Amino acid sequence: SKLEDERDPYGCYVRQVHHKKPEENGVKTMDELFRSAVENFGERECYGVREAFGEEVEETSSGKVFKKMNLGEYRWSTFNEINQRVDDVSKGLLSLGVRSKKPVILLAETRLEWIITAQACFRINVPGN
């Protein structure tokens, strides 16, 4: 990385790596993009989750009250592990009667299971809403 404006030593640093755009690699769908990432980064960390042990209420010196989550350490899954879970969920959706180009609705909190299910829908060409 390098400074965006070299005259400003406190300015932003910008990354200097230039990657091809997905379409330049023949990627046309979200599933193809994910499969490309799996192929290129299979054993690297892909998603990390942390167990929530509870929350504390804290008050600042100004009297503002906020909640603070007590979280465990990250547990990481590799691209290959996530890809296997995406495959399993996509097969499960097909076995439940979900079909290509028939929309489904995903209702869930922001969780790893949500993105795995979304990727599974992309894999079997199911639009999500």
Keywords:
129 residues, alpha+beta, two-stranded antiparallel sheet, 3 helices, 4 strands
Provide structural commentary.
This protein is α+β, with helices and mostly antiparallel strands and 129 residues long. Helices cover 32% and strands 26% of the residues. The protein is built from three helices and four strands; from the N terminus they run ββαββαα. The strands form two sheets. A two-stranded antiparallel ribbon has the order 1-2. It is extended. 10% of the residues are buried. The model has no long low-confidence stretch (mean pLDDT 90). It is an enzyme of class 6 (ligase). It comes from Nephila pilipes.
Fold blueprint:
Elements lengths: L1 E2 L9 E2 L15 H12 L3 E15 L5 E14 H17 L16 H12 L6
Antiparallel strand pairs: 1-2, 3-4
Helix pairs in contact: 1-3, 2-3
Pfam families: AMP-binding
GO cellular component, one term: plasma membrane
Family: Belongs to the ATP-dependent AMP-binding enzyme family.
Order of helices and strands: EEHEEHH
Give a quick account of the main beta sheet: strands, pairing sense, barrel closure. Answer: 2 strands, antiparallel
Global outline: extended
Distance between the termini: 37 Å
Amount of helix: 25-40%
Structural class estimated from helices and strands: alpha+beta
- Tell me what portion of residues adopts beta-strand conformation: 25-35%
Number of strands: 4
What's the tally of helices? 3
- What is the strand arrangement across the widest sheet? 1-2
Overall residue-averaged pLDDT value: 90
Stretches where pLDDT falls below 50 for ≥5 residues? Answer: none
- Radius of gyration over alpha carbons? 20 Å
Protein name: long-chain-fatty-acid--CoA ligase
Keywords: ATP-binding, Fatty acid metabolism, Ligase, Lipid metabolism, Nucleotide-binding
GO molecular function, one term: palmitoyl-CoA ligase activity
EC number: 6.2.1.3
